[in-house]
Task: inverse folding
């Protein structure tokens, strides 16, 4: 092989290797930012959202209703779909839990970690057994803006939509 050809090949592959190295660095940076966001979300759940949910659940239960608080970590299914990290409060009016295939017919509020957007979304379902309702994204917050007062405001909104009309 000629020296010029050898130099051309070296130049081509050096450029390719440089691009690949830069892509790996960017991917690692994005991954570490995502992991940091998810860690901070978990801390916010532990320090702010869950304690507020627990306090609100006691008030809800004192009026004869029931609640369930669940926490899910981000996960991926076999097809690569992402299930976002979240904390959800499900409310069971009059303490009646529906059959498992009808759980979606109970009021609920979720704080969901949007790890790609680095935002937290609230999802509210005002569905009531045999009464219908709506379900969808309600608000969007930056992680640092979520306070006990925000959590309370979101739950009060849900309760007013379900019980206050």
Result:
């Amino acid at each position: 092989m000629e020296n010029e050809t050898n130099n051309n090949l070296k130049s081509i592959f050096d450029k390719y290797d440089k691009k690949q190295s830069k892509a790996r660095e960017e991917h690692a940076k994005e991954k570490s930012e995502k992991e940091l966001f998810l860690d901070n979300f978990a801390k916010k759940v532990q320090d702010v959202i869950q304690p507020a949910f627990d306090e609100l659940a006691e008030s809800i239960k004192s009026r004869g209703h029931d609640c369930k608080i669940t926490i899910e970590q981000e996960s991926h299914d076999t097809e690569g779909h992402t299930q976002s990290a979240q904390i959800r409060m499900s409310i069971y009016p009059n303490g009646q839990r529906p059959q498992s295939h009808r759980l979606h017919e109970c009021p609920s509020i979720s704080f969901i970690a949007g790890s790609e957007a680095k935002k937290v979304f609230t999802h509210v379902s005002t569905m009531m057994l045999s009464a219908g309702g709506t379900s969808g994204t309600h608000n969007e917050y930056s992680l640092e803006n979520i306070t006990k007062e925000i959590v309370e405001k979101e739950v009060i909104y849900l309760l007013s939509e379900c019980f206050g009309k």
About this structure: Residues 3-62 form the longest helix (60 residues).
